[in-house]
Amino acid sequence: MDFEYQIEGGDFTNAGATSSAVKKILKQLGVNPEIIKRTVVALYEAEVNIVAHAYRGSIIVNLEDHKISIKLIDEGPGIEDIEKAMEQGYSTASQKVREMGFGAGMGFSNMKTNTDSLIVNSSPGIGTTVEIINYF
Amino acid sequence: MTQVESFHHALKFKYDLCIGCSHCTGVCPTGAIHVEEGKPILDSNRCIDCGRCYLACPVSAIYIEQDDFQTIYNYKFPILLLPSIFSAQFPERINQRAILSAIYHLGFKYVYEVEKSIDVLKDAMIHAITDDNKEKPVISTYCPAIVRLIQVKFPSLVNNLLLVKPPLDLTSLYIKKAFIEQGIAEEDIGIFYVSPCAAKIAAIKSPVGDKKSHINGVINMNFFYNKVFRIIKQGIYELRKEESDFDSLSRNNLLWSLTEGEINLLPEGRNLAIDEVHNVSDFLEKIENEDITDIDFLELRACDESCAGGILCPGNRFLIAERQKKRAKKSNHRVSKKENELLKYKDYLLDHIGVGKVLPRSMDKLDDDISVAMRKMKKSFELNSYLPQVDCRICGYQTCKDLSDAIANNQADLKQCIFIQRILEQTDKLTQAEAIKINKQIWGDKKFDKNTLKGMNLE
User: Fold this and answer.
1) What is the domain range of residue B231?
2) What is the CATH number of domain A2-135?
3) Do B264 and B344 belong to one domain?
4) Which terminus of chain A is more solvent-facing, meaning fewer CB atoms within 10 Å of its CB: N or C?
5) What is the pLDDT of residues A12-52, one digit of tens each?
6) pTM
7) Does ipTM top 0.85?
8) A contacts of B381 (beta carbons < 8 Å)
């Protein structure tokens, strides 16, 4: 079963809408609450990344009996050094932004701890693709 | 285990009074009611006893079960356990002494206010909140409708629930203990609770996460108010002289059942108070997504204005809250007061303050088997795409989505949708007679009786 959602860059008011929709679906399927939570937290993080950094993006959710895979494809600046970005505490945010409480560099590491598989691909200047897989 | 069985509900339908208007269906925060043959059908596993339906019913066809008042006379020591907001139901000109005297006139030997035990509860609360191992935000279990809402709609948050007894259970535990210590036989003690809502009654009859209640009987607050008010009006009571128990509550105790009553007792931190069940649902949705984080404690109440807005409160919730706050203010000024004798039992109560784990009981799932659930969901999504999204309830369900879920579960038919009916009629796939038959199955024969409009000028 597939679902598709569209995300607008910069639209913070609606960031989290996809996570909520996916959560409702997983609840209806009777997926273990702990796995729902992990999936939703990781997805929310990824969704906000698109809103914060990209111009626009789409989220494709695929459900099978034993797993959920979510592909987030955005058009945006991309990530120069993915390995570095995955490190806990790494952030491109300026000191000023950090002082305001954003850009703590926890995004990817938070996603990593909440997923069974996390794959990030990026072409600088074109966009980023994030794939999240969790098993039920 | 009580949690695996279906919930006990205090809300019941009087089918003979019901006019089949489905207002109850519309307001239910968990979509627990649908209509068949003109009558509401309650999904017992979804209902959380919040009582929105009770308030919405235009013909009072929903009632809240209570115990027979006469049973108080079966006990040598009938004891009344009263939420402190009871006296705030009365207009200002009726004083506390008169209310208490009228209660004794009814036959009660002792009267206690529920919030007596909050001084003990407060310590346990603070202890739990400051425990680093406890999942944050800690969610209050004071409102039993909220506990059930979390079990049903937010199962991933059950571990956040604060597992301590509510004041009602602590105070009744104290009463029992104190009376037995005085040499009174347990079977002679009858503790009766006046409830401001259906949820507390349901929680007494089938406690969540706990074995049994010490309450011997429940009386609805509006019923009790009428009884007491009548005695006061008739002036048939004897005005008591001794200082009443009503005075012994502190300011904090009196404010407890109002919105922010819990968070005002807590040390500095990020503590939020939210009232009204739909507001609570919206907020928990965000908590569950971790869209809102770093909150220490959540005080959540199902009724607007918390217990002042209890569905069985006869007074206006804003006036009740105002009166209660006034009483609290006065209580703060009186410095030396009767000691709260419950505090002598503090250690005993703290030893017994814990309750069992609250289990999730998600009622959203379409099937126990995930692949079947997925098939049903696929079907439901497809069906829903044909529905008008008007949520008109003519099909008998709260929303178009609920109808499509019901069809996917083989509990309903797409032709129940009035829009689908019209479409099918245009292509001769459904006759008018068939459509009327379907509508009668949902709403009963009477609502579609062609003789209803006889004699009416339709020009």
Assistant:
1) 69-351
2) 3.30.565.10
3) yes
4) N
5) 888 889 999 999 999 899 898 889 989 999 999 999 889 98
6) 0.89
7) no
8) 1
